[in-house]
Write a structure and sequence with these properties.
Order of helices and strands: HHHHHHH
Protein name: DNA transposition protein
Structural class: mainly alpha
Distance between the termini: 68 Å
Largest sheet: none
Helix content: 55-70%
Strand content: under 5%
Number of helices: 7
Shape: elongated
Number of domains: 2
Length: about 150
């Protein structure tokens, strides 16, 4: 007879860590130029968005209080339309409309930075303090050894 788990019982092996950094797979946004990579990122975001391009354009228009059309989004997403690179204001509106944090991560990754949720900041600060404390402990221990060798301790 197989044992049944209670529905509230967590599965230890089923646990997956959170995803503090969300990014596009590198091969999906790789291109010959930065402008082409941005177009690919815009394209990936729009393809994977639950909203239609028309709805994304409408949300962007509302956010910016200016007209953004589906053909504009199509142009931003097209590598062939290099003269129609999305500007930063519309890029921000696109992030807001799609909720796709990978777009912001794409830009940050150009500088070897990462975009994380603010709730992770205390954990990062704690890790930095623990690293500093470990460094200080090593320095203190080195000083202690030196003092013992000198007969002071």
């Amino acid at each position: 007879m197989s044992r049944r788990r209670h529905p509230d019982q967590l599965d230890l092996l089923g646990w997956e860590p959170s995803e503090p950094v969300r990014a596009f797979e590198a091969h999906t946004v790789r291109a010959a130029s930065l402008a082409a990579s941005i177009s690919k990122a815009v394209s990936q975001s729009l393809k994977q968005c639950a909203l239609s391009r028309e709805k994304v354009a409408a949300r962007m228009s509302e956010y910016l209080d200016e007209a953004v059309s589906k053909p504009m989004l199509d142009a931003y997403a097209s590598e062939a339309r290099g003269e129609h690179i999305i500007n930063v204001v519309r890029f921000i509106a696109l992030i807001e409309a799609t909720g796709d944090r990978r777009l912001l991560e794409f830009i940050a990754s150009q500088f070897d930075w990462a975009v994380i949720e603010r709730r992770y900041l205390p954990a990062i600060e704690l890790a930095e303090r623990l690293e500093k404390r470990a460094e200080m402990d090593r320095e203190i221990e080195a000083n202690r050894r030196q003092l013992k060798r000198g007969g002071v301790l």
